[in-house]
Amino acid sequence: MSELQDPRVLFAAERTLLAWNRTCSSLMAFGFVIERFGLFLQISAGESLKTFTFQRHFSFSVGITFVLLASFVAIYSVFQHIKVLKTLNPAEMPAGYNRHIGIITNAVLGLLGLILTAYLIRGFL
Description:
Layout: H1 8-45, H2 53-86, H3 101-124
């Protein structure tokens, strides 16, 4: 349990959670771009599709891995943040402050990443 009695501890934890949110959003976007770039290469190959089959599968695998990594980190950061919140004293919590919006945001981001993964896999098959 924290002994600082300072609300800035809560806000530091919130900033850390939001930093993880930005990191996960970037990883997810990067994975999506990598996956779609392989599709672009396949389409631009035209008749010589067989030469780009390996690149398409490789970019698909790497892109999906980035999206899944982002989803995992977003969901894991929620559990880490909840652990930190449990260590804070009531004096470190401002009255009426909603501590759950960051948690909800990261959880939704993680779930959206899983939905995006399902969408990309369905489009690949």
